[in-house]
Amino acid sequence: AAAAAAAAAMALHEESVTHERMGIVEHVDGSRVYDGLFPFHEAPDGRKYMLYRWRPTLVEEVLPEPMRPLPLPDRLVMIRRNLLPPVEAALRRGLDTAAGGAKLAPYHPAPPGAPRPSRHTPEITLNGDPTWSCAIDDMKILRDLELELLAEPLPVIAPKADAPKAEPPKEWLIKDSVFGPRGKECDSKDYVDTQELFTKMFELDWNRLQAKRTFSKYCPGDHAMGQGVKEVIRTHYEDLAKAYMYYSVMGSGSEESMQLNEYTDLCNELAIPDKSSKYCKLKDIDGIFITAAFKDNDEAKKLGIDKKSLGRHEFIEAFIRISEAKFGHEQCDDVKDLKQAVAACCLEKLKPNLPPDAVLDVNAFRKTQLYTADVDSLLKANKPLLLGLFAMYRTRLRTKGLLCDAWVELLWEARLLVDHIGPVGLTGRECKLLFIWSRMTQVDPLTIPKGWARGACTFVEFLEAVARTADLMSLPTAEDLKGGGYESCTDFMKACDAGTAPKVGPLSERRPSAGIFTPTTRPLQDKISVLLEVITQRLIGFTQAPNEAEFHRRLKKAREKAPK
Asked: What is the per-residue pLDDT across 154-179, written as a single tens digit (0 to 9) for each?
């Protein structure tokens, strides 16, 4: 117990006194570094050594108390450095130790302050202007400014919140537009007629021809000659298919079949009949039509084609037989067989003589004018009106699509034909062409889905027909209407109906931009907007609706009753 008490007392004593230690250094003979500093002691073995006492000079670092930050300066006087604490005072501040609160001795001597300049700072002139000069130590300018300002603190201005970053405009995609369904519902599974589509059409028509007993004997597909004819037709098939559709729509029959008068118009356009020819007189051409159109009752019923009309594959047969009548039978020295006769007819008759609008590239209008964000926005904004018109005219025949006759009826009731409004209107032929150009090409037009009529167009195709109509018509501009004294295009149309429209000037003739191959001068969406305004106002009068609201109510009722 006594030993434990002594140990505790010794530990308490060691904590209360400064830690000191004894050091020993052996003296080396000849060394004079420590002469006069320490006494020497001699050990029993004769060696000399020196004893010294030392204590640690390093102490625990004591962090100073945090200083209260100075307020933000709200006056000019607070900008000056005389408000900052003196350096000497900060260095001499007593700091409490971590234990016991004992004061540490200040640094002694205190470290010197920053050196002062040995001479007065000369005056400084900025930008070479002698009227602006001051000395660095001269604060008179700040004091004068402070007297001119209000003594009240400056108002605290809250920092402005960052404005939300504007999101970049969303990229317009055709699949998200009103034309989006076209990529799924048409045979090409695209938004244009593709080359793969025409390849499928050709194979279908050629297979149907080979299934005909009369043609397979005339041009057997397993024979070298038949294979040669097939390749020539394949090369020019797109032009043949477009010519068939172009002339089929000109008659009074179905646009999916070609009648004799339409067939004769095409042959005359190609300069096929020749009175001096032994095999190619007009009666010979008519005989070829009868041969190609021949089909029994079962086949006619299966294909849905009149026995006196040509289907698309039968038109190909007629063209091959015409080629032989025109260039075969040793009538030309350089034509030796049927293949060469068909090639000659394509190059010398079909290509040069077809009118440009018969082989129109319908994809060009879609790519350059129709498929745009502006046109899409306008059609979306007027979608209820367009759906109502589509439903109103297709329900008359109770079909899911709109037929060409119903389309022409719409334009006639809106009084947009030449017979109604003169040169600015459409011809009956143009009405039909606008319709067939707006439809996507079908691989097999003879096979139709349930509930649809042959040759009917979808709603998206109807939208394209409206757009093509606006582009083709000679709708007057706002400048032309103003020059003629009309406030709107509807007022001008009423003047046309009344026979009081101008007989001379821009409003009396078609605009230079009206047409199929003429360059455009106005955005398509502007033309569509004017056309929809005219159609609405003129149909209100035709249906004898008391006002526009009642007309739109009738359109809504038509949409509800339309077949789904």
From this structure: 555 566 667 777 777 888 999 999 99
Q: What is the rounded CA–CA span in Å between residue 449 and residue 439?
A: 16
**Stretch 421-436: mean pLDDT, rounded?**
84
What is 69-92 written as a DSSP string? PPPPP-SGGGGSGGGSPPHHHHHT
Q: What is the pLDDT of residue 298?
A: 78
What integer pLDDT is reported at residue 55 of this predicted model?
65
Contact 482, 242 (CB under 8 A): no
CA distance 214 to 231: 20
Q: Are 248 and 235 in contact (CB under 8 A)?
A: no
Q: Is 308 exposed, middle or buried (0-12, 13-18, 19+ CB in 10 A)?
A: middle
What was the pLDDT predicted at 234?
A: 95
- Does pLDDT of 297 surpass 50? yes
* Dihedrals phi, psi of 54, to nearest 5 degrees: -145, 160
Query: Measuring CA to CA, how many Å separate 521 from each of 61, 477, 487, 518?
Result: 86, 10, 21, 9
The span from the CA of 60 to the CA of 139, in Å, is 44
Residue that has been written with the tokens 């001269």 in this structure:
138
Q: What are phi and psi of 413, to 5 degrees?
A: -70, -30
264 alpha-carbon distance from chain centroid: 46
Sign of the CA dihedral running 421, 423, 426, 427: positive
Residue 175 burial by Cβ neighbours in a 10 Å radius (0-12, 13-18, 19+): exposed
Instruction: Give one DSSP letter per residue of 494-557, joined into a string.
Output: HHHHHT-S-SSSGGGS--TT-SSSSPP-S-HHHHHHHHHHHHHHHHHHHTT-SSHHHHHHHHHH
Distance between CA atoms of 188 and 173, rounded to whole angstroms? 19
pLDDT higher than threshold 70 for residue 114 = no
Q: What is the 3-state secondary structure (H, E, C) of 217-263?
A: HHCCCCCHHHHHHHHHHHHCHHHHHHHHHHHHCCCCCCCCCECHHHH
Distance CA 147, CA 252 (A): 100
| CA 212/CA 227 separation, integer angstroms | 16
479-525 per-position pLDDT tens digit: 888 888 888 888 888 888 788 888 777 777 777 777 788 888 889 99
Integer distance in angstroms from the first to the last C-alpha of the chain?
Answer: 109
Please give the single-letter amino acid code of residue 358: A
pTM of this prediction exceeds 0.85:
no
Q: In the chain, how long is the greatest CA-to-CA distance?
A: 157
The predicted-structure confidence for 203-214, as pLDDT tens digits, reads as follows 999 999 999 889
Report the alpha-carbon distance of residue 282 to residue 267 in Å, rounded.
Answer: 9
Q: What is the DSSP annotation of 135-173?
A: -TT--HHHHHHHHHS-SSPPPPPPPPPPPPPPPPPPPP-
Determine the pLDDT at residue 398: 66
Query: How many other CB atoms sit within 10 Å of the CB of residue 292?
Result: 26
